[in-house]
Write a structure and sequence with these properties.
408 residues; alpha/beta; five-stranded parallel beta sheet
Length: 408
């Protein structure tokens, strides 16, 4: 069992909030991390995946909580949103009686729409919301997970390089914990079951999809667009639906943690010439590879999708390094109408850092010409970098480095 960075955040949040909510896509390990609290902190545990528990929670929510006891973990809370109101009442009463109601409930759930509706209506100000993602590479290799930001110290940082073939094996396998409990498990079968479960249980409960095959075709199409700028009209034309439906379905995928949208970087000085559309990334490369029908890493590494999947992997790992540590991922991308592009622009302490993500290992200043577009930014320019497959970190100049993907 891998040690998850988020677990200490869960325990710390329980010291300061009555309710801790763990949300995220299916099968990222929410239940596993929550269940650890039964041994460490003496929590009771109940899952609403079990039909009898769900029925009881809906019919008599107050008795349901009394019967299971407090402190209590309720797994898959979205199946009985009425429990949110009861939990609010219990928390308010304890606050009045004892002035401290912290550490009473841990709730987990996969469907962000129904989860957040309940939180907004009943638990605002009483709950800490923690978003959980698939395993990070740092968690898999059991190294400390620190927020990634290029700095001069990275030039001499010791790291264990990962070669291109091994990297693409990781990318195709993906980062869902179940695939690492049994390393001999069949990846294709896992993702087939995952997609079918997701469509049949989650999507069908959120929107009325008359043609599940059409939605599946939509999933397959946008998987080939990971790390690309979103063009709603092109997607609609290729899938055979209207652009309004595309926007709706992308919102569903984003809300349920399948994809995220990276917004374009914007400043007043630059606003007249920058592109406005977001870029789309799958939260897990393995799921995207399965949907795009590139289950073979040897094929992917030589395909025209190789760069897109490398970029998706790096972007995900950087994002995880922040969110797993409870920090905001303040990242954007830059593209203007002169075709200048920067994969990732990060803002930290009024300093802008530019990051390019490339397959390959040998680069020089001509590969980072786009960084010049932000030299007159409202922020000062910090250290920037190319993240790639180099086995040795090196400098292009005093402020731009080439860093191994293993340094994330």
């Amino acid at each position: 069992m891998y040690k998850r960075t988020i677990f200490n955040r869960i325990k710390n949040s329980l010291k300061h909030y009555p309710v801790v909510i763990i949300t995220g896509p299916r099968q990222v390990g929410k239940s596993t991390e929550a269940f650890k609290l039964t041994k460490e902190l003496g929590f009771h545990y109940v899952s609403l995946d079990k039909i009898s528990n769900r029925k009881q929670a809906l019919e008599d929510p107050e008795f349901f909580i009394q019967q299971n006891g407090i402190p209590l973990i309720i797994d898959e809370i979205q199946y009985a949103p009425i429990l949110m109101e009861v939990i609010e009442s219990i928390v308010n009463k304890k606050r009045l009686e004892e002035d401290n109601a912290n550490g009473m409930f841990v709730l987990t759930g996969s469907q962000t729409f129904s989860m957040m509706k309940g939180v907004t209506q009943s638990l605002a100000g009483r709950a800490s919301i923690l978003k959980m993602m698939p395993l990070s590479y740092s968690e898999i290799v059991e190294k400390e997970e620190k927020p990634f930001l290029p700095c001069i110290e990275m030039l001499n940082k010791e790291f264990q390089p990962i070669n291109v073939n091994e990297l693409y094996k990781l990318i195709v396998r993906g980062f869902y914990p179940e695939l690492y409990k049994d390393k001999e498990s069949d990846t294709f079968e896992y993702y087939e079951n995952y997609v079918n479960t997701y469509i049949d249980r989650d999507v069908s409960e959120l929107i009325n999809i008359k043609d599940k095959l059409l939605f599946h075709n939509f999933l397959q199409h946008i998987a080939t667009l990971t790390s690309q700028q979103v063009n709603y009209l092109d997607i609609a034309r290729n899938v055979g639906i209207d652009s309004k439906t595309v926007k709706s379905w992308i919102s569903i995928l984003e809300a349920s943690g399948i994809i995220y949208l990276l917004q374009p970087y914007s400043e007043y000085k630059l606003s007249k010439r920058i592109v406005k559309s977001p870029k789309l990334y799958f939260c897990d490369t393995g799921l995207a590879a399965h949907l795009a029908r590139v289950d073979n890493p040897e094929y992917l590494v030589i395909s025209n999708l190789a760069g897109a999947f490398m970029e998706t992997y790096v972007m995900n790992e950087i994002k995880k390094s922040y969110e797993n540590n409870g920090l905001k991922f303040d990242g954007y991308y830059y593209r203007d109408n002169h075709q200048n592009e920067i994969d990732l622009v990060m803002i930290e302490n009024l300093t802008v850092h530019c990051i390019e993500i490339k397959k390959g290992s040998m680069f020089d200043k001509k590969h980072v010409k786009s960084f010049q577009q932000l030299e007159h930014s409202q922020y000062k320019m910090g250290v920037s970098c190319i993240v790639c497959n180099t086995e040795n970190n090196y400098a292009i100049n005093r402020n731009i480095f080439v860093l191994s993907v293993s340094c994330i």
